[in-house]
Amino acid sequence: MMDHTQYRSAIMADPHDPDPDLRAHRAACAECRAFTEQLLRFEARLERALLVDIPTQAVVLPFARKGVQGPRRWLALAASLLLALVIAAGVWLTLPQRSLAAAVVAHMAGEPDAWQLTDVPVPDADLKAVLEDSKLRLKPDAGVVSYASSCAFRGHKVPHLVVQTPSGPVTVMVLVHEAVRNPKQFDEQGYRGTIVPVPGHGSIAVLMRDHDSGSADVARIAARVDDSIVWTR
Amino acid sequence: MPGADLYMNDEVGGNQSRARFQALCQSLRPDLLRFAFWLSRDRALAEDVVQESMLRAWKARDSLLDETAAKPWLLTIIRREYARTFERKRFPTVDVDELVAKEEPMLAAAEEQNISDVRAALMKLPDDYREPLVLQVLMGYSTAEIARELALSGPAVLTRLFRARQLLRAACGEDLSLDPQA
Question: How far is the C-alpha of A39 from the C-alpha of A10, rounded, in Å?
């Protein structure tokens, strides 16, 4: 016959254990029944606690292609090396002015999944939660927001959104803590963008991938994004 | 074979299998990310580990014979990828209080303070106790499955689960007067 200690040890290891001996002991022992109920209440809290919120985001896997054979392989290798040199030179040339724009681009490069072309919006509740932290909301005509996340950026949590536009996905970072005096255009590491001042609310960074955009596109979209934001403080 | 569509080789079949694999990853992503988060207690690291694991899974997809077993298969890949991350990088000593503060937005439970308390206690739970607990409660693993995944004996798993709950309940101010001694 199972004793109290054996029962409670077993039930603490697995509160949902269907073992008949455990069930029989529980049925016969009021104190262990009370213990089990207390444990199951905690278990419900534990289950909810483990279900942390996950930002809605599409999975995009850069699937490996079949390997290129023969001379084409060497050409591809040479092209890759040349590209690496060009990128390295570009990075070196921009180092002295590494700044807010560079930090924004670096952040984008770290979240390639966000760029998916889609017409599936993030759930309203997720978007609202992300925007509320920065005391803003979007007008209904802002477009389909396909990605929304509160991201750590230069020591602050900032809204990172992807808005689907006719020119392709556009990333928007609302930088309440980053004031700029004038609009700044940049073209770095395959991203074209602008950071525009928002008097009293820091700035907004708008980025597109280079092949999706021209400078005029970016400036026009930035103006439209700025116009779509309603500040709630 | 249920998983056969994942590794068709011609161009059309290849596109279909990529799309199917992507859909599979999409459907499992929340669970995988939660598992990786509780493994690492770091959201950014969890996202990196899951992304890398999905790529490894795609390359090794012919080892998945039954698509219904995809979740445990991916969880195993995530555990290995997480371990590899530690082999590649030497992380500084972890300050749990800093971790809790860093992940505060993810740990905050909008609805209930007592959920946030459990999350903070989970963050401080030693890895050896947290991992089997997450596999059991979040992933629905049986004791035997946890033992297989973690290469432990069944009694060792039960002892860790017992200790995990005991430490958590103590940290959350639960009444332990009826608890057995470990």
Answer: 12
Contacts of B168 in chain A (CB under 8 A): 42, 46
Domain coordinates of chain B in residue numbers?
Answer: 1-91
**Average pLDDT score, chain A:** 79
Task: Give me the pLDDT at residue A222, please.
Answer: 82
Which residue does chain A place closest to B28, by CA atoms?
Answer: A59
Tokens of A190: 């395959």
Q: What is the dihedral of CA A83, A89, A93, A96, to 10 degrees?
A: 110
Domain B1-91 has CATH 1.10.1740: yes
3-state secondary structure chain A: CCCHHHHHHHHHHCCCCCCHHHHHHHHHCHHHHHHHHHHHHHHHHHHHHHCCCCCCCCCCCCCCCCCCCHHHHHHHHHHHHHHHHHHHHHHHHHHHHCCHHHHHHHHHHCCHHHHCCCCCCCCHHHHHHHHHCCCEEECHHHCEEEEEEEEEECCEEEEEEEEEECCEEEEEEEECCCCCCCCEEEEECCEEEEEEECCCCCEEEEEEEHHHCCHHHHHHHHHHHHHHEEECC
- Probe site for chain B from A4, A12, A134 (most B CB atoms < 10 A): A12
A137, A128 contact by CB (below 8 A): yes
Q: What is the CATH number of domain A98-231?
A: 3.40.1000
Task: Write the pLDDT tens digit of every residue in A176-209.
Answer: 888 887 788 877 777 788 888 888 888 899 888 7
For A107, A150, B17, B24, B81, the CA distances from B67, given in Å and listed in that order, are: 35, 33, 12, 9, 21
Chain B residues touching residue A41 (CB < 8 angstroms): none
Q: How high is the ipTM of this complex?
A: 0.84
Q: Which of B44, B143, B169 sits opposite A42 (nearest CB)?
A: B169
CA–CA distance, A123 with A120 (Å, rounded to integer): 9
**A14 vs chain B: nearest CA distance in angstroms?**
7
Out of B29, B157, B168, closest to residue A46 by CB: B168
Nearest CA in chain B to A157: B105
SS (H, E, C) B106-165: HHCCCCCHHHHHHHHHHHHCCHHHHHHHHHHHCCCCCHHHHHHHHCCCHHHHHHHHHHHH
- Chain A residues with CB-CB distance to B169 below 8 A: 42
